[in-house]
From TrEMBL:
GO terms for molecular function: transferase activity. Keywords: Transferase. This is Transferase. Pfam families: Hexapep. It comes from Microbacterium pullorum. It comes from the Bacteria. PANTHER family: ACYL-[ACYL-CARRIER-PROTEIN]--UDP-N-ACETYLGLUCOSAMINE O-ACYLTRANSFERASE (PTHR43480), ACYL-[ACYL-CARRIER-PROTEIN]--UDP-N-ACETYLGLUCOSAMINE O-ACYLTRANSFERASE, MITOCHONDRIAL-RELATED (PTHR43480:SF1). SUPFAM superfamilies: Trimeric LpxA-like enzymes. InterPro entries: Hexapep (IPR001451), Lipid_A_LpxA (IPR010137), Trimer_LpxA-like_sf (IPR011004).
Length: 135
């Protein structure tokens, strides 16, 4: 049986230790909190201080930055990026290659499509079809 962690050096020369999540084998940094029922696929990263709730699905290549909060039953598609301090509400869906900026807020149940950008600090809610609602 191989080791259950990997050490990665960041841009500042610091070494961060990541463990492989039991459900999906994605990499979870020391200090991140990820519920055991969440799926974090191989190739996805969850950074220190991030919180991931029950039933979340984080697909390959997705990146959750430090101190982001991901609510229950959220789906984050392949190659999506959730910025530092962002919050994603329960049941929201984040599309492929979509970026949610630092400290942005995505309302529960929101549908953010593929290749979209939610700006830093922006607050977003959508209807059932994914059309953005006025804040």
């Amino acid at each position: 049986m191989g080791k259950n962690y990997v050490d990665i050096e960041n841009d500042r020369g610091e070494t961060l230790r990541y463990r492989k999540h039991v459900n999906g084998r994605g990499l979870i940094a020391h200090g991140a909190k990820v519920h055991a029922s969440a799926l974090v696929e191989a190739g996805a990263y969850v950074e220190p201080g991030a919180e991931v709730a029950a039933g979340v699905r984080i697909r390959r290549g997705a990146w959750i930055e430090p101190h982001a909060v991901i609510g229950p039953d959220v789906e984050i598609a392949e190659l999506a990026h959730v910025g530092s301090g962002a919050a994603i509400g329960a049941g929201a869906k984040i599309g492929i290659r979509t970026t949610v900026g630092a400290h942005a807020r995505v309302a529960g149940g929101a549908l953010i499509g593929d290749n979209e950008i939610v700006a830093d600090g922006e607050r977003v809610a959508t209807d059932r079809r994914g059309l953005r609602l006025a804040a």
